[in-house]
Every structure is written in structure tokens, then in C-alpha cells.
Amino acid sequence: MTQRRAFRWPQPLEGQTARIWYGGDYNPDQWPEEVWDDDIRLMTKAGVNLVSVGIFSWAKIEPREGVFDFDWLDRIIDKLGKAGIAVDLASATASPPMWLTQAHPEVLWQDYRGDVCQPGARQHWRPTSPVFREYALKLCRAMAEHYKDNPYVVAWHVSNEYGCHNRFDYSEDAERAFQDWCKDRYGTIDAVNDAWGTAFWAQHMNDFSEIVPPRFIGDGNFMNPGKLLDWKRFSSDALKAFYIAERDLLEELTPGRPLTTNFMVSAGGTGLDYDDWGAEVDFVSNDHYFTPGESHLDEMAYSASLTDGIARKNPWFLMENSTGAVNWRPINYRKEPGQLVRDALVHLSMGANAICYFQWRQSKAGAEKFHTAMVPHAGEDSQDFRDVCELGEDLQRLADAGVLDTTLAKSRVAVVFDYESEWATEHTATPTQQVRHWTEPLAWFRALADLGVTADVVPIRSDWDTYEAAVLPSVYLLDESNTRRVRDYVAKGGKLFVTYYTGISDEKDHIWLGGYPGSIRDVVGVRIEEFAPMGTDFEGALDHLELTNGAVAHDFADVIASTADSARVLETYKSEPWVGMNGVPAITVNEYGDGKAAYVGCRLGREGLAKSLPELLETMGVEVASGEAGAGDVLRVERTNEAGDVTFHFLFNRTHHPVSVPADGEVVVASLAHTGDDGTVTIDPNGVAIVKR
Fold it and tell me: Whole-angstrom Cα distance, residue 630 to residue 473?
């Protein structure tokens, strides 16, 4: 397991006390200098105390090769610092300038058909290009040497959203790097042949030079699954290696200044292995943008919880979110009244000690001119800016109340997420293209919240096996190490919930034989001989299965052929005889050692899980608040101090109607909420109340 770097957090400017960092991306080079003083006036009014500067400023900082212009950047950093606003300074390497790509077009990445990504947007560089690395590190060196003693720079913002556009590069540089990566991982070409199962379709290789990236193989054909899985691992590692090169140079020249880069953790944001990357930053940072519609709050809480899991419950930094609409969806929905404040406090509740936005002032030109900002096109006299000021006051109030001395309290239940299982389930030759790993953890998080349980979402490398109960939701890949962890956890008294599509393959995507789920079949006490995918693409095809408890399965079900003597069947399927699923077990509980393992053999979604979980949790001996009226109406999150004698209870309304809950403490923040004479707090839709106890 990768050794994690020691946690280091940006420290306040001299003479200031620690506060919740609050601000956003600031792009003064987009504006004439006469706007800068007004920006600082408005930042002060809003309570902003940190901005990220220079993220896309390479062409402004180095207008011609080897010619650096720091004057403008010096002036704005000095203005900000003297106003008490700290700077998170970017390495500015995210997008190379035109002079570089014209002189060295070989740095441009290629897609899987060999087409070259031309300049015109951003991230048009190859992670494995030695030429690009040379130029990028020259810029890092110049930046570090110039700002190494600047008292207003509190952190390094290394590049920006690695892999957002250049996750995959299929160039000759990438080919050579992929060959070297395979050598390091496997040692011999025979080991690669074994891992990729190259005996199939005559893909045997005699030498590492025969390894090529998974380029275009014809429409409708199927890439080698083992090779494609390793390509995704390699691509994450290649970008990480570039980040480490930047990080190490900056750290060498500016020792003691913490470094980070902004991840893109969300329910479906699975491009890079962010848990692996989390070991390489001094503090975890994340960019998160809301999902429009009914899952808005829950998906945000889920993603923030996963970010906290990646940070291992150290404070983390929300580097970007939006005050309202974004600009990059087909339809860019606005936020509803109250959601600007509430959304920020969701991240804070889940362990973020910094709340920042893209961006400070909304652009008047360029591709992101319709992306909302802290200062919108409408200017200071706008609801968004008034909300930004309200949030600044709330954050100051919470800091004064001591929230910075607390971290996210550990839940009793862990929901496990695995980046590599997601990558493996993305292959185009699987039992059904309707099933991916990432949707199942979110469904469990939401269903548990419906019962009043706010679970921790944790990466598979983390300490999920120290929780009272843990969920392995469609964790398709289980290697020998994690298989042992499953066995030990349950045998020692753990309460494990396992779903369909878990433990199917090892880390090479080789099937565990003998019946599914092969690696942990004895732990869960079921043996599956085949799958029963469901769909609507053919008339008369099986499109759902009803369970005996009234829940409805869709998309996927296991054909459980037998259960262990130690297993108890809780639910079966009800179907017509010719379907072959009538009476087949759907949900089971098995005694294993001192613990229990439940198995949910079908995709139930949030609704079906919420219907099935009360009985299942009771059978497993996991107590929940589902018997309380309205238990699922409020998302409850706790932050507590190390001694456990101070707790902040964050209460978020999950409904479209007001809900009342006991306050039982000091209401520190009430947004779209109010306290009553009876000791309760009533929270309106999109509202939140924060109670200190």
C-alpha cells in the first residue's frame, strides 16, 4: 500500500487566526486593473479570505519562451495580501501557450484513432511527453523561485483537474511509457500474457515492444479486458507521475508550503483513482458540481463523504463548486433559492474546512462566460452575491463557535467504493451494459439515508473493516488481499452486506471459478450459476422481477442455485413458471464465524433497497432510526472534536415540505430555518440548521 504523505494544511496569514478558507478561483488577468480594487472591496464585504490565482495564466506569465512577466501577478498578490486575503498559487501548467504548441506540436495528445488534439481549449498536452514536462518544470521553477518568500502565498495549486480532458493519450510517447509501466508492474512479458489472457484470440506477445495502447480496433469489436483495465491504471499513474514531478520541484524550492491538486470526486467521477492520488497530496482538494433534480442533495453528500474517506478524515478543501448554473451541460439548470448556502454547508458538514467556487467574477468572454460566479454578470446588486455574503457570515460564525476543532464523526456503517471495479465494469462485453459499479454505492447511501442512517462512503483501501457494518456494493474486483479482509471481518463479528456483481473477478479481471461470487462464496453462503439480466430492448424480454416483500428488481439478478445450511433466505422472486426464477432466493443472511453476511442478489435501486432494508437490518442486528416518524426527511451529519464533548449537528431538509426536529442545543446557523418556542427547529425546503451540543 502506498505510503501517504503527512497531512499539511494552509496556514493563516501573519497576524490572522485560523478560519474556514472561503473564496474561489480568481482570474484578474481577464479584467482591466481598475476592476481589481473593486474585486478586493467586494471580497472583503463577502468575507473572502483566500483565492486561487494563475490557474490558466501560463501565456500571461511566460508570453514568449524564456521570457517571464511577473509584474502583474506581483501587483495583484500584493493587493490581496495587504487586504488580508491569502493566495493559493497555481503552477499555471494546465494549458500550454500557443507559442509552445506551435514550436513543439509533438506535445499534443492523440485520441484512439490517432487524431491529434489541437490547441483551442485546454489540457491539450501529453502526460508522457518529455518535451512538455521539460517546459512545464521550467515554468514551475521560475514560479517557485520568484514566489518562494512571498508571505501571502499559503499553498501551491499544482496544475488543475488532471485528466479532465487528457485522461487518455494514445501517442508514441504514451506507447513507450505504457511498455515501461508494464515492465515495472509485471517484470516479464509472460506475466503480462497471463494477466491479459492473451491465449484468447491469438494475442500472445513475445516482447514488451509488442505492447501497444488500446487504439481503435474497429466499430463493434471488443478490446482485451485485462489490457484495457491496465490501460486505465496506467493512464491514472501517468498523470500522477506528472503531478509528482511538479510537486517535488515546487517542494524542493519552497519547503514547508503545502501542495495540492484539485480532484473531481463525484458519484460518477471515476476517471482517475483519486484514492491512490490522495496519498500524494498534502491535503485533499475537490471540485464538485451539483447534479440537477431530485438527487441533488444526496449525491452531493455522497460525494463529499467519499472525499472525506479519501482524505482519511483529515480536513479537506472544496476547491470548486458553483453558486448556480454551470455552462457545460446540454441544459444548465439554476440552483433553487437557498441551495447556494445549503450546498456549501453540506461539504462543510462532511469535513471540508474550505469552501471555494469557480469563480470569483463571472467572465464576460470565453467558453465559461455563462458559468455562474460569486459576483455574477448582474454585479453586486444580485441575489447570488447577497447569498455569497450570507454564507461568508455563516462560515465566520461557525469558525467562532469552534467547528474547525472538529472532524466528521465516524458512522456505524461504511459503504465501500472501488475505482478499479468501476473501470472493469465499463467494458463493453459484460452480462449487461446497464450495470456499472458506481451506481450501487450511491443507491445504498440514499436508501440508508431514507431510514435515518448517514453512512460513510469509503474507498476499498481504507479501514472499512473497522465499522460495525459495511456494504460491498457491486465490488466486481476482489483480489486475494481484499478477499482475506472480507473473511477476517465477518469471522470476527462484522456485519457485511454484499450485493450482486461482487467478487466476480480478481485484480486481473480473471473470473473466480466454481460459481459466483467465487472469492467469497462461502462467506455469503450462496452459489450462483448464471446471471439473469433484464431489459426492454426486445418485446417480451424479462424487464423486472418482483420480490416477496413487494420490492422490484430491475436490470440484473443472480440465479442463486443453492444456499449454505447456515444461510437464511429472507426474500425470493415471484414470477411465472417459464421464467425460471419463481422461488429463487433474492436476499439471504449467512452466519459466518462470529459475524453475519447478507447477500442482495439483484439490483433494487434506492426504492427497493429502502423497502427491503428494515427487515434485513433487523435480521443483521443493525439498529436504525427507521421507526421514528420522518426519520428519512432530514439528512443528519455530525462533526465532533477529539474528546467527543463538542458536536455540531448538521440537519438538512431532504423534502419539499417543512420539517421540524428537536434542536437540543444552540442553533448556530439557520438558513431557511427557524427555531420554535417548543425547542424544535423547523427547516424549510433547501434549508439547513446547525446545532452545537
Answer: 26
Closest CA to 454 of 436, 463, 465, 467: 467
Q: Considering Cα of 410, then 415, then 420, then 426, what sign does the dihedral take?
A: negative
33 is catalytic: no
SS3 596: strand
pLDDT of residue 38: 98
Give the DSSP letter string of 415-434: EEE-HHHHHHHT-SSSS-TT
Q: In this predicted structure, what is the pLDDT of residue 624?
A: 83
> Residue for cell digits 448554473?
325
Residue type, 230: D
Pairing state of beta strands 153-157 and 86-90? parallel
d(CA 346, CA 163): 26
Low-confidence residues in the chain, pLDDT < 70: 1-2, 626-629
Name the active-site residue from 161, 246, 420, 571: 161
Q: Are 635 and 654 in contact, with CB atoms under 8 Å apart?
A: yes
- In sequence order, what are the residues at sequence separation of 6 or more whose Cβ sits closer than 8 angstroms to the Cβ of residue 488? 465
Q: What b/e readout covers 20-54, taking b as 16+ CB neighbours within 10 angstroms?
A: bbbbbbbbbbbeeeeebeebbebbeebbbbbbbbb
Q: Residue 91 gets which letter from DSSP?
A: -
Whether the CB-CB separation of 404 and 353 falls below 8 Å is answered with yes
User: CB–CB of 242/162 below 8 Å?
Assistant: yes
Question: How many other C-beta atoms can be found within 10 angstroms of the C-beta atom of residue 681?
Answer: 22
For residue 682, the model assigns a pLDDT of 97
Gyration radius from the chain CA atoms: 26
pTM of the complete model beyond 0.90: yes
Q: How far is CA 613 from CA 297, 387, 517, 607, in A?
A: 21, 39, 21, 10
Identified catalytic residue from 246, 251, 280, 320: 320
Q: What is the pLDDT of residues 355-370, one digit of tens each?
A: 999 999 999 999 999 9
Position 569: which residue type? V
Confirm whether 134 is a catalytic residue: no
* CA distances to 66, 524, 581, 615 from 595, in Å: 65, 11, 29, 17
Maximum pairwise Cα distance, the chain: 79
Report the 10 Å Cβ neighbour count for 401: 17
Best CA proximity match to 455, nearest among 686, 590, 638:
638
Note the residue count of the chain. Answer: 693
- SS3 for 344-374, per residue? HHHHHHCCEEEEEECCCECCCCCCCCCCCCC
